[in-house]
Design brief:
Asp/Glu_racemase_AS_1; Asp/Glu/hydantoin_racemase; alpha/beta; about 20% strand; six-stranded parallel β-sheet; 2 domains; Rossmann fold; about 270 residues; four-stranded parallel β-sheet; 11 helices; Glutamate racemase; globular
């Protein structure tokens, strides 16, 4: 009955932590493609190939449902994977859906025409690949009108977080927020469009100001997954135990993951 959670590195652990707390009875198999991280600097074809390979490994690990807990993979690979067809009985979900549901205050199944929403000026902080894809703006435009989105590519931030260099990460957050504010001085809301970024939530909030609503994905994804599994209980796969897999150095990844979540985690080679 396992569910797969995939990320290029450790950022998806923020999502895993939230969904595991929300669904303690469900085993989760986490797959970090650490050997090829970060994805945010790669082109779309490369991201697609790496993502499909990782997801196939999660099918083999007994997961019928996989969450792409990686905004870059969700932006660059998810739609193409779905259009090319998934194996029978398998599903892949991204992390944009719950975020846009929250921002537009409408359910994903609501296919009514786009309408005006309360938030008109949105700052999007994401990896270079996610920004290039314009996936967030495209999905938002299906559901809302009149929303101005200013995207800021946060180069270097994922690498700093993965290496545990939080001093550098904080400096980069402040630099990227400053750059965004030069383009959009008064955002009403900010989207942390990478699952690594919630670890820097307080820094983003301080740099943006208390009047800016900052949307982080982990709890939104957990709530959405809970609802999805209630509606589709058949999507719980055959796996029976939680596991942590990585394409990188399992010992090194385990050390960084333990620092990342501040609790012991042990990865095995994928």
């Amino acid at each position: 009955m396992a569910v797969g959670v995939f990320d290029s590195g450790l950022g998806g652990l923020t999502v895993l932590d939230a969904v595991a707390k929300r669904l303690p009875e469900v085993p989760f198999v986490y797959y970090a493609d650490s050997k090829h991280a970060p994805y945010g600097v790669r082109d779309a074809d490369d991201i697609y190939d790496l993502t499909t390979r990782a997801v196939a490994n999660l099918w083999d690990a007994g997961c019928d449902l996989v969450i792409l807990a990686c905004n870059t993979a969700s932006a660059a690979a998810l739609r193409r994977m779905q259009e090319n067809g998934l194996p029978k009985g398998k599903r892949v979900l991204g992390v944009f859906v719950p975020l846009i549901e929250a921002l537009t205050e409408r359910q994903w199944g609501d296919n009514s025409p786009p309408r005006e929403v309360a938030v008109q000026h949105v700052a999007l902080f994401a990896t270079p690949a996610t920004v290039r894809s314009r996936a967030f703006q495209r999905e938002l435009a299906f559901r809302a009108i009149g929303v101005d989105v200013e995207a800021q590519a946060c180069g270097g931030l994922v690498d700093a977080i993965e290496e545990g260099d939080m001093i550098l990460a904080e400096a980069l957050v402040r630099s990227h927020v400053d750059a965004l504010k030069r383009k959009m001085p008064h955002p009403q809301a900010a989207i942390l469009g990478c699952t690594h970024y919630p670890l820097m939530l307080e820094v983003f909030q301080e740099a943006l100001g208390a009047d800016v609503t900052v949307y982080s994905q982990a709890n939104l994804v957990a709530s959405s997954l809970d609802d999805y599994l209630k509606r589709h209980p058949d999507m719980l796969g055959t796996g029976t135990e939680s596991r942590f897999l990585t394409t990188g150095d399992a010992r090194k990844v385990s050390v960084h993951a333990t620092q990342f979540l501040k609790r012991p985690l042990s990865f095995e080679a994928a």
